[in-house]
Amino acid sequence: MSLFVESIKLQDGRFYRLNLHQQRINKAFTDFYPDEEPINIVAQLNQYTFPQEGIFKCRMVYDTDVQSLEFEPYVRRDVRSLKLVETDMESRPYKMEDRSQFNAAFALRADCDDVLLVKNGLLTDASYCNIALYDGENWITPCLPLLYGVNRAQLITEGKLIEKDIKPVELMNFQYICLFNAMIEFGELKLEISAIRQ
């Protein structure tokens, strides 16, 4: 059976977006373990002594129970360029531990720092991040990402992102692309559109 993972941001003793991580866990249990009680993320975290200063990634691997839970100091990768790469990966509402398909796509980045994935003629994600593009007025995020991230969900709920289909040929209509995930806040990693290469 598959293993799932949640990467939870811990900064100065505070966990981020726990309610959204819990919703994603609940979805995995509904689809894969409907007869089991979902893991309670807060109850799990309360069993651990965790760092009170600095930024850490809390990585929880689970199936019907927690298989491992680790706190790792977090250092953001530097991304300055993106290469468009086609993919046929399945879109998922939860995060799988198996990243072999993402890793295979990342290996196609050539001399770029990361990939910008395209599925069925539409932009989806980078290898580790959801994306949003700025058109001079609004930040637009693809309707159909490969991973429905917790930060993305929060930003949409707050009205900071608008969901639309984006084709690679439409990139010229945008000024910036922002990469973000559970660990990287929106606005921390922003590139000019010229950083995207065919």
Give a short synopsis of this structure.
This protein is α+β, with helices and mostly antiparallel strands and 198 residues long. Helices cover 18% and strands 33% of the residues.
List the helices and strands and how they pair.
Layout: E1 4-11, E2 14-15, H1 18-32, H2 41-45, E3 55-62, E4 66-73, E5 82-86, H3 100-106, E6 114-119, E7 122-126, E8 130-134, E9 139-142, H4 150-157, E10 162-164, E11 176-180, E12 189-192, E13 196-197
Parallel strand pairs: 5-6, 5-13, 9-10
Antiparallel strand pairs: 1-2, 1-3, 3-4, 6-7, 8-9, 8-11, 11-12
InterPro entries: Aminotrans_IV, Aminotransferase-like, BCAT-like_C, BCAT-like_N
Pfam families: Aminotran_4 (PF01063)
GO molecular function, one term: catalytic activity
